[in-house]
Amino acid sequence: MQPDDATLTRDGLAPSGRGRVLLIACGALAREILALIGRNGWDHLDLHCLPALLHNRPDRIAPAVEAAVAARGAGYERVFAVYADCGTGGDLARTCERLGIGMVEGPHCYAFYDGVEAFAEKGEVTCFYLTDFLVRQFDAFVWTPLGLDRHSELREMYFGNYTTLVYQAQTDDPALTALARAHADRLGLGFERRLTGYGDLERALARA
Amino acid sequence: MADEDDDLILSELDDEELVAQMFDDLYDGLRDEIMEATQILLDRGWQPYDVLTKALVGGMTIVGNDFRDGILFVPEVLLAANAMKGGMSILKPLLAETDAPRMGKMVIGTVKGDIHDIGKNLVAMMMEGAGFEIVDLGINNAVESYLEALAREKADILGMSALLTTTMPYMKVVIDTMKEQGIRDDYIVLVGGAPLNEEFGRAIGADAYCRDAAVAVETAKDWISRRHNQMQAGA
């Protein structure tokens, strides 16, 4: 059964207790990770998601991962953090190294969906990225926390230096594309869709 | 707060009440009310610098403190800043004509690859409010842009801002280049931005990391006065 987005956003996902390797992941990646586990028959992987809203509080990610390892890690052969740096400024990497667990390479999920090297080469500093999850949860992650639901006049202060909303599509879904385009319109940005699929995420999980 | 004050006529308040009301209106991000009150104080003979420091900066300091303490969040701070900017737009031409204190000159901008300028703009505004002259280089600045502006403007302070963990290391590139050119100690270097901390500021060779705009102002004042003391001691 697919976990619902609202739960993944605020609560995360408990592990099933089956499997030898515990994945501790951002809730924003749950559907994609479950899809890859299903597609590849990776029954040894058990998924535990932390609330995706940590995306907006990167200073809390490393402590949350450490707490999850302490609370859930026992009984598994190993643990792997399905996070990139995600704005932690190296905190998460240092925590994972100290705990002896692996993590995903790259600065954030936008980079590993695109391919970390390809993303860096593009150097698109005026692009604002959304994934499938963030398109669906745009209000919870962008519109409401930034106060744009109450004060649309702030839009220019937040997004005035951006030019384009880039929708990195993990799945080919016309309804999501239309929704992403509508978000771009609300932000006053140009729109571009890139079908990235799962990018480097699949490779990262293969070595988890 | 706004609802109960709907019928309030600002011009009927005495000075003390009006300044207190401006604190409330800044807190609520009411730009029109702030502009009106600013003009009322000027019409009553207040010096522009006094309006700026006693009413606007005073009010924004409360906003800054409540942001630091987790009572207010970014949208509310931006609304307050927008209200303060309204008042500043009236005061700025007048401040240039009067002999408001000049604290020093700061070149400020976000680093290469970073277009997020909300924090930088808040710092620039509060520094201006404290009497610093600001040369705002805007966003996405390469090292050459900073160094050229520092020399051209004969600045005292360099302020660099970054929101992204991927761009903040560029601050070290700028500071290292200043060292290579033998000009590092000619300037006070302040850095700030959400992912930074004191440890990072020290590691890259900045003079100080500033957690927020109010800290930036106090830090800049402190470093400027230290410099003056050093100059006097050496004279």
Explained architecture:
The complex is a heterodimer of chains A (208) and B (235). Chain A has 208 residues and is α/β, with parallel strands linked by helices. Chain A contains eleven helices and seven strands. Helices cover 42% and strands 17% of the residues of chain A. In chain A, helix 3 runs parallel beside helix 4. Chain A is globular. The mean pLDDT of chain A is 96. Chain B is α/β, with parallel strands linked by helices. Chain B folds into two domains: 88 residues, Methyltransferase, Methionine Synthase (B12-binding Domains), Chain A, domain 1 (Orthogonal Bundle); 131 residues, Cobalamin-binding domain (Rossmann fold, 3-Layer(aba) Sandwich). Chain B is built from nine helices and five strands, in the order H-H-H-H-E-H-E-H-E-H-E-H-E-H. The radius of gyration of chain B is 19 Å and the shape is globular. The model of chain B has no long low-confidence stretch (mean pLDDT 93). The interface between A and B is medium-sized, with 21 and 24 residues.
List the helices and strands and how they pair.
The complex is a heterodimer of chains A (208) and B (235).
Chain A: H1 5-10, E1 21-26, H2 30-40, E2 45-50, H3 61-72, E3 78-82, H4 91-99, E4 102-103, H5 109-114, H6 116-122, E5 127-131, H7 132-136, H8 138-143, H9 155-159, E6 164-169, H10 174-187, E7 190-195, H11 201-206
Parallel strand pairs in A: 1-2, 1-3, 3-4, 5-6, 6-7
Helix pairs in contact in A: 3-4
Chain B: H1 15-27, H2 31-43, H3 48-68, H4 74-97, E1 104-110, H5 118-129, E2 132-136, H6 143-153, E3 157-161, H7 170-180, E4 188-192, H8 198-204, E5 208-209, H9 213-234
Features:
heterodimer, A: 208 residues, alpha/beta, 2 domains, three-stranded parallel sheet, 7 strands, 42% helix, 17% strand, B: 235 residues, Methyltransferase, Methionine Synthase (B12-binding Domains), Chain A, domain 1, five-stranded parallel sheet, DUF1638 (chain A), cobalamin binding (chain B)
